[in-house]
Amino acid sequence: MSLEAEPLLRNRIVSKLRPLADGRGHDDLRPSTGDHDLDSFMQDWVDPKERLKPAAVLVPLIEHNTGLTVLLTKRTDHLHHHAGQVSFPGGRVEEDDLDVIDTALRETEEEIGLHRDYIEIGGYLDDYETGTGFHITPVVGFVRLGFDLNVDDFEVAEVFEVPLDFLFDPANHQRHSRDYNGRRRQYYAMPYGDFYIWGATAGMLMNLYRRVHDML
Fold first, then answer.
1. Phi and psi torsions of 8, nearest 5°
2. How many domains, in total, are found in the chain?
3. CA distance 39 to 48
4. What pTM value is reported for the model?
5. List of E strands, 35-75
6. 129 and which of 34, 45, 111, 164 could share a cystine (Cβ 3.0–4.6 Å)?
7. Is residue 42 part of a domain?
8. Helix crossing, 199-212 with 6-16: angle to 10°?
9. How far apart are CA 71 and CA 164, in angstroms?
10. Residue 37 lies in a domain
11. Rounded-to-5 percentages of helix, strand, coil across the chain
12. Which sign does the torsion angle of CA 148, 150, 153, 156 carry?
């Protein structure tokens, strides 16, 4: 799909998302996509006695005059979870959060200083389960220009943008594999310059691509 007519693309994206009327809350853990889509054995990595940890991320679509880009972060190398990986801003749901939208916006403000006043929420992607025990709700938001960032350098090493047309090009959709926990696992990857977009982040971007292109 061409990004030549950005308003039309924005409208199409919103029309393909799960609507805000879903009213998702903290405990709304419904069936989801996830790391197990490519490797069903990954479901066994989560202890069935332990509840998946609810989390939310923001999928920020920046509205440039030349087209939409996706804002991503590279996590610092010393973090306990997903150190050094490319990710969306986001994190665990906290008790004081009103809902998963509030979680995604709060975490975005804390991690990179992008204020919620610049973000218009469009809807949700399918929830995503990770082999590390998180149940993530991806919240898609359109970000108008004029914002400033104030990056928390304890959590975030870099912030960068990727053109949506790059991420929507099937030529850039790769499947890689590696040994992990004694098993050979597969995962999606979308390398972009010096950034290696893979795993859950690439999986959620694939879900966005499939939704917009009527492949779900």
1. -65, -40
2. 1
3. 17
4. 0.88
5. 53-64, 67-75
6. 34
7. no
8. 100
9. 10
10. no
11. 30, 35, 40
12. negative
- The CA-atom distances, in angstroms, between 2 and each of 34, 136, 140, 153, 168 are 28, 29, 20, 35, 9
Q: Are 178 and 185 in contact (CB under 8 A)?
A: yes
Strand, helix or coil for residue 160: strand
Does residue 43 belong to any structural domain of this protein?
no
Q: In the structure encoding, which two tokens stand for residue 29, read together?
A: 């853990």
Range of lowest pLDDT (5-9, 128-132, 147-151)? 5-9
Q: Which residues contact 212 (CB under 8 A, 6 or more apart)?
A: 1, 12, 13, 16, 168
In Å, how far are 12, 47, 97 from 208, measured between CA atoms?
11, 28, 25
Q: Which residues contact 194 (CB under 8 A, 6 or more apart)?
A: none
Report the CATH number at residue 105: 3.90.79.10
For residues 186 and 184, what is the distance between their CA atoms, to the nearest angstrom? 7
CA angle 133, 50, 187 (to 5 degrees): 20
pLDDT tens per residue, range 87-145? 999 999 999 999 999 999 999 999 999 999 999 999 999 999 887 788 899 999 999 99
Q: Which domain holds residue 128?
A: 6-25+50-212
10 Å CB burial of residue 113 (0-12, 13-18, 19+) is middle
Under a CB-based contact definition with an 8 Å cutoff, are residues 34 and 130 in contact? yes
Tokens of 216: 């779900």
In a domain, 143, yes or no: yes
* Amino acid found at 106: R
The pair of three-digit structure tokens given for residue 148, joined into one six-digit string: 């400033």
The CA-atom distances, in angstroms, between 178 and each of 27, 125, 181, 187 are 33, 26, 10, 9
